[in-house]
Every structure is written in C-alpha cells, then in structure tokens.
Amino acid sequence: MDIFEFFFGEKSDSDLHTLSKSGIEKYDREDYVGAIQDFSNAIRLFPDNPILYLMRGTAHLDGGNTFHAEKDLFSALNLDKSNYLILYRLGMLLHKRRDTTSGLRFLIDSYDTHQTEDIEEWDLGKKKMLFVSKRTIALTIGDFLIDNQRFEEGLGYLERVIEHDPNDPNSYHIKGMSLAKIGRVREGIAYVKKAVQLGSPTAEWSLKALEQIL
C-alpha cells in the first residue's frame, strides 16, 4: 500500500492519484499556484473528498493565502471531523491569526486523535504535506502553552515529547530551556545535562549559559 491508497483507498480512481501526486510534487517544489490548480481539478472530480480540501488548504496556507486556506480547511473538517491532520492545520492557521484559544483547542484535539505514526517511514514527499508526527504536535502545543503562561500544562506536553523519543537529546534540551525561561533554572539544568549526555553539541553551550545564571 502506498500513501495514496492509504488516504484514498485501494480502489480509488486513478485520476485522483495522478492529480494528487502531481499537486504534492509541485507543493514540494514550492509551486503553490500549480499545486492548488491540481488539487482544484481533483476537487471538481471528487467534491466530497476531505483530503483534497486539506491538501489545497495546506498549499494556500504555505503560499500565504490564509483566507482561502481557512475556507478549505473548514470544508475538510466538515467532511471529516476526526482527521488529526485537518485539526492540526486548522490549529496552526488559527494560532497564526492570533486566535490562540481556538488554535490550541484544535491542536490538542489533533494530538488526541493522532493514530498514524506507522506511516512516518513511507515516502511522504520532501515537505511531508500529509504527515505530522505526534511528537511534533506535542512540542508545538507545549511551546504555545508556555508562551501563553500556561506553564504547567505546557511542561506536561514537553514531557510527552520526551516520552515519544526518550533518546532524542533535543527533547531534553527544549524542556530544560523552557524550565529556565520560566525561572526554574536548576530544574532546567538537569534536563540540559541529559541532552549533553545524549550528545547534543548545542546543549553544551546552553548548559554553560545556564550555569552562569546560578
């Protein structure tokens, strides 16, 4: 099974595959106008497919057209209210528009419904239009919550980032610096030291800077 069979079904129309593949290839080249045209052609043929609106909305979003991105992403949501990626893209769009409350709600719903980690190793294209890891979503939520002074909630999501990949030094580095940011420097140093132990060269610089604060 390839990525298109996974999203559209094994017996889906060949035109759907062809237009979607072409659109994703153009999206990967940052030819957003061309990608939008391919996805629009596919939508004319298959107007009830939520993934097509998701893809076109993503191309609009990355191309800077938030108005059309929002229309497409809400169209996708109306067709599939449990797709984690639709929820994620909407959360990012609304956060970009400074609707932090709604953005976080969609992002948290995205995290809670994410169940497709097993496709991460597939050929998903250069920019991975159709995949975001659960770890990335947790990191995004954690950062946004801390920025909005919801510290304990944010730190909880950053701990989940570590749980998703306990051998990744960046996860410890990020949580350590977030703790330091809110004044919990000693706790932060412990996490940054763990990042250093796991081989992060950037964490070494952070550790030196934090130790000078004490």
Task: Outline the structure in words.
The chain has about 210 residues and is mostly helical. The chain has a domain at about 150-214: Serine Threonine Protein Phosphatase 5, Tetratricopeptide repeat (Alpha Horseshoe). The protein is built from twelve helices and no strands. Helix 4 packs parallel to helix 6 (about 85-95), helix 6 packs antiparallel against helix 7 and helix 8 (about 135-145) runs antiparallel to helix 9 (about 150-165). The protein is elongated, with a radius of gyration of 20 Å. The model has no long low-confidence stretch (mean pLDDT about 90). Pfam families: TPR_16.
SS class? mainly alpha
Q: What sequence of helices (H) and strands (E) makes up the elements?
A: HHHHHHHHHHHH
Per CATH, what is the topology of the domain at 151-214? Serine Threonine Protein Phosphatase 5, Tetratricopeptide repeat
Average pLDDT metric:
90
- SS elements, strand count: 0
Low-confidence stretches: none
Strand composition percent: under 5%
Q: Please identify, by name, the CATH architecture of the domain at 151-214.
A: Alpha Horseshoe
Alpha carbon gyration radius? 20 Å
CATH classification class of the domain at 151-214: Mainly Alpha
Q: How many H/I helical runs?
A: 12
CATH homologous superfamily label of the domain at 151-214 = Tetratricopeptide repeat domain
Shape: elongated
Distance between the termini: 55 Å
Q: Major sheet, described briefly?
A: none
Helix content: over 70%
